[in-house]
Amino acid sequence: MKTKILVTGALGQIGSELVPALRARYGADQVVASDIRMMSREELLRTEGPFDFLDCTNQRQIQDVVQRNQICTIYHLVALLSAIGESKPQVAWDVNMGSLYRVLEVARINNCSVFVPSSIGAFGPGTPQDHTPQDTLQRPTTMYGVTKVAGELLCDYYHQRFGVDTRGVRYPGIISHGAPPGGGTTDYAVEMFYEAIRHRHYTCFLKPNSRLDMMYMPDAIKAAIDVMEAAPARLVHRNAFNVTGMNFTPEELAAEIRKHVPNFVIDYKVDPTRQAIADSWPHSLDDGAARQEWGWDPHFDLAAMVRDMLENLERKLSAQEVHDAPNAR
Ligand code: SER
Question: How many angstroms separate the alpha carbon of residue 293 from the centre of ligand 1?
Fold first, then answer.
């Protein structure tokens, strides 16, 4: 992959883990992190490389950061997720499409490669829900999904029309113990881990049998790096490769957590908006094209993910407790 790299939305769920992974691989000074939020003191202390404030709906600001840092590859992670997108559809359009269009324009002008994540949200009712094919019907019913399909098409257009090296994957729900996700439908899975450790009890906003594709963060990071490093000649598709690590329902995840936390209890209070979103998405993606065209091969299944998540989250939460204790030094 061409360095230097710019990551937008770097303080979000994916960005906060992608940036250190890219820095470990290509060198700390080769990766510029950026976000519309300024870093907290803790984040500043932890960070190892350059950080820029960046509002991705402002093309002049993107151009300035790209030019000043001689950026060659942009990981564009800025986006509002599905549930928050339904509560603020106009903002979701402005942020998701406004930022993507401007990033692609800057990439065209400066000859940058671009990674853009799409999502299972790019599918909708009418899409085959089991073994959802790579190329299939995409008529999503959420603003998030509309922006994801439009984004996939816009990235294809910039590649075909202007030769911009655009690439991307369709992420399923991403589970991680680092920065929390925000405003997504698949976020129940992350919440369940926090509540299982803190309270041994979780009230789930989806029905017990809502099956969705999921992925553990280390595999999500691997997908983002591998697709950008793939030999272009092998790519038949470019943007929006189906990728998945596993699929499960809330009750299956709870059962797996209970193997480690025996007194964990789950109950359900369904949120109709998020349930309708989940019902419109695939149960299981066919990721054959990614496997064939760039060797996609996830490491974590449900059992391995749950084991690793609980271990890491327990460590993180007990460290926080020590830190937050009133007389902690
Ligand atoms: N995790 C996302 C959401 O739930 C889907 O890509 O909105």
Answer: 25
- Answer yes or no: same fold for 5-172+217-242 and 174-213+245-283+299-324: no
Element (H, E) at 158: helix 143-162
The CA distance from 71 to 146, in Å, is 29
Active site residue 26: no
- Ligand 1 first shell, C-beta below 6 A: 81-82, 119-121, 144, 171, 173, 184-186
Nearest CA to ligand 1 atom 2: 184
Residue ranges covered by each domain of the chain: 5-172+217-242, 174-213+245-283+299-324
Read off the pLDDT of residues 1-22 as tens digits, 9 standing for 90 and up: 777 999 999 999 999 999 999 9
Distance (Å) from CA 14 to ligand 1 centroid: 12
Average pLDDT of the chain?
Answer: 95
Active-site annotation holder among 26, 75, 101, 144: 144
| Per-residue pLDDT reduced to its tens digit, 79-113 | 999 999 999 999 999 999 999 999 999 999 999 99
Fold that domain 5-172+217-242 belongs to in CATH: Rossmann fold (3.40.50)
pLDDT in tens, 258-297: 999 999 999 999 999 999 999 999 999 999 999 999 999 9
Please give the single-letter amino acid code of residue 1.
M
For residue 185, which atom of ligand 1 is closest to its CA? 4
Nearest residue (CA) to ligand 1, atom 3: 184
| Cβ contact 154:194 at 8 Å | no
In the chain, how long is the greatest CA-to-CA distance?
Answer: 62
The correct answer on CATH 3.40.830.10 for the domain covering 174-213+245-283+299-324 is no
